[in-house]
Each structure stands twice: as structure tokens, then as C-alpha cells.
Amino acid sequence: MGASAEEMNVLLRRYGLIPTASVRPRLLELDALEEILNCSVELNLKRGFLTGDMLDQMVAAWDQQSPSIQHNTSGTVPVSTPAAQLGRSIAPIAAPEPLDIQFRNNLPDWKATDFSEIATDAPSVIDIHYDITGNSITEGKMSDITSCFNDRLQSIRKMIIQNSNLPRKPTEIARLHAESSRYQGYENKAVAIGLVNEPRYTKNGHLMWNLEDETGELTCLLTKRKGDDRDRAHEQILDAGLMPDDVLGVSGTFSQTGDLFYVDDLHFPMEQRHTKAVSEHGVSVAFLSDAHVGSKTFLEAQWHKMARWFNTDPLAKTIKYLILSGDCVDGVGIYPGQDSELAIPDFYAQYTKFAELLELLPDWVECVMLPGNHDAVRPAEPQPTFEKDIQQDYNTTTFVGNPCDFSLHGVRILSYHGKSIDDFVAGLRTVTYAEPIEAMRQMLRRRHLAPQWGGKTPLSPEPEDGLVIRQVPDIFVTGHVHGHACEDFKGTTLVCSSTWQDQTSYQRMLGFQPKPCMLTVVNLKTHATISIPFA
User: Fold this and answer.
1) Do residues 343 and 373 make contact, with C-beta atoms less than 8 angstroms apart?
2) Within 13 A of 212's CA, how many CA atoms are on the CB side?
3) Whose CA is closest to 247, among 149, 376, 100, 167?
């Protein structure tokens, strides 16, 4: 028998692999699953989607390492070999032993060279690049919505042209329709860039959508391929799907009738690799989110445990900044029946309590605090920061909007609460609440934090779309989903900030288990990361 579904998911996360639908049944039937997945490292296979071809390579590599083991769809079967054919055994192959990880004060160990500077030895340098606070000028008119989408299309179109390997210069869709007979067959490909409308699947599993620019609309078809024509990038798109209002480029040819565009390649605005900026100072920044102070499920004892750690631990003395990515309080009237789950039923009293909790942290820690969907600001994103009446209780805290693009000692950070993760979970088949960091990868691929208009995330139609990721950050942080993760994606450190709230009744009903009380620390000079548990 192979691994259970839960064991399989744990192993896949360890190796950074997401199986396609056709691969999952095969994985469950493999006895030596962990050893086979380990072959992905030896083969230098990229993290991401695990296709059938990749699994075949890994199984073949494992077979070469263990010729006495044979793999097939029913699992791993020993192959009997006559004793006369066996070679001399030099030494038995020992099973890998677990790493003996050392802990300091029951916490993960760290190297002093990775966290080299005391916070008090460095000045405070916070540079805000984008914050909607005081800059929101929309009146909610149709002209504002049109301006917002035109700015999104023009901004991301430039990124696609700069970062993607387009086969030719893109053409307006209206002109492509007029000259569709030129782009039939394989010799002459057409290229267009536009907004995705109505993505849907056909009965045969092909992906269709309408692509719209300022001049017209194009009906696109991405087909499933078989045999030698299979393409890994295409399979990833087909497995995941597309988000409504994505901006992307397509290259391909027209059908004989000219009413359908066969897509050969898709082009996203994400650059291939980002090079992180490095601070001159070896101080660190810490991340947490979703404290939900005021809720009966706020984990106050664990907060006090963290506060004691901040005041006593050597690593904590390197933390110059603490980023609070929204939902610091639980709010009032956010969802039906919330009153029965509140320990503090007053909005302002919740913020006062949170200010008192921040006062427990040492003086050298400077906070950057932004709102989320539970906070006392407008729900439409981008959100301005808190009112002055709320801010007056806080010391050494910089208040910013959501999202906020800023730099700490030259290291660029994009902090976003993450409400649109709900839309990515609903819109893309590869994004789940159990693995929310995949939504962050998709945001960077699209260079947009919340592409879907009219979804679960209310959007404010600013004439300049404030949710376009105009510059790739060195660190990208979200919260909202009460998970926790920290990894590198194409040169950007992704941080899914942990919550300080226990499982709620709604989460219990859904069977969702949060990952609370994990403080993520990133050094601004070495970009070394460590996660400290306080649960």
C-alpha cells in the first residue's frame, strides 16, 4: 500500500510540488513515495506543478538507484533475482536519519552571522512608495471604473512587452480581426494583450476565454495536448485556470472562419528572476497578522509569551521593525452573530487594548500597521489607514494603508492584508486555503493583487489602479487566511503571516485548522529567515 492522502500532501509540500489531477492517483499507489520525490532534487526539477512526465523521470531515476525494486501503477513490487546474479554487497544502504536540530531555549537555532546587528545600533529608515491614504480621488462613476481598467491594461501591457519573450509586436484586437486571414496556419503568428473575460472550460477540458482591449474582443481557445505536443506551461494553465480581469498576452493563429483564436503561448508580466536589494544594516524585520484582539479566541497568553521573548532573547534584539498586516482587532458587526463571540464589544476599546499589548514590546521595535477587512476603515481596496482617533493611543507606530509599498533601509516590501486570496481560491483550481502561498505566487505572476472585479473583494475604482504591482518587491507579505508560510519565489521572499487567533466556530464548521502564533523574522542584509513558534 502507498502513502495516505494526508502523508502524500505533507511530502509534496516538503518538496514544493503540486500534483496535477491525473498524477494524484498514481502517487497514492507508490510505496517508495518519499524516495521517488527526493529524486526531483537530484534531477534538478523545478518546484511547482508535478506532471506525469516529471513523475516518470523520477520513477526512472529511482529504478536506476534501486534495480531490485520495480514500480508500476499498482505500487512497488520486489523483483526476485537469483543469488548467483547478485553482486558482492559492500555495505547495506542505510535509511536516512532525521536531522538533529539544535534549539536555544526550546526555539529554532540561528546563526549570529545571519542576524548580525543590534536594532538600537541602526537608525530608523522607512520610505513609503505607495499608500492610498489621502490620495483617493474616485467618485465611483463609470468614468473612474474605465480609467482604472485602462491604467491596469496599459501598465501591465508594458511589463509583458518588457519581461515576456513575445514572438512579435502586439497588435490591437480590432486590427487583428480585420487582418485575420493573414494569421491562419503556423507560419504567421498574431500577438494580442488584453483583459480576460469569462474564462470557462469546454466539455473536452479545453480552456476558453474572451480577451478584450480598448478596440475589441477576441475569443481564445487553449487546447489540451497529447503525446509529443504536450506542453508543461500549458498544462499548468489548464490545471489552474485564469482569473477574470487578468491582463495577459496571447500568441497564436485564427481559425479558418476567423471567429476563434487558437492560443499557442500565453505571456504573463512576471519577470524570470528578481534580484533582492541588500541593506547596509544587519537588522531584522518581523511579521504577524490577524491578532483579532477583542475576540474570545484571541490568544492573549501566547502574546505575552512573545512579548517576554522580545525583551529577553538575543535574536529579538536584532528586530528593528514589526509589520502588522491587518485585522489587528476583531471589529464589530463584521459578520452575523459576531456579538456572541466578542470579549470586547466596542471598536475603540479593542484598538486601545491592542495598543496596550504593543506597549509590552521593547522600545527598539518600530511597528508598521495597516488595516484589513475587520478594521474600522472602508472595505473597498485599496484601503486608507486608520482615523486619528484610533492612532492617538499608539506609540512608535507608522500607520499606512492597505496595500502599502515601502522600503526599510532600501529593501522593498509589499504588505497586503490578502482579502483577494478568497477570490484566488474560488477562481483558480490550484489555490486552496491550506496552501495560500500559491495565491501569492499567482499575484506576482499577474503583477496584480486583486484582478477580479465584482468578486469577494470589494474594489475602489481609482483612476490609477493602486493594486498593480508596479515594482517587484524583495519581500511580499500577506495575512487574512490564518495560515503560515515563508519561502522564496523567483527571488522574492514570500511571507504568509501567522494569526494570533485560535480556531473560530466558523473555521471549525469548515474543518479548517489555523496555524497561529508563528513570528516570521527576516534579516534585511542577509535575507535569512526564521519562524519562531509561540503556540
Assistant:
1) no
2) 14
3) 149
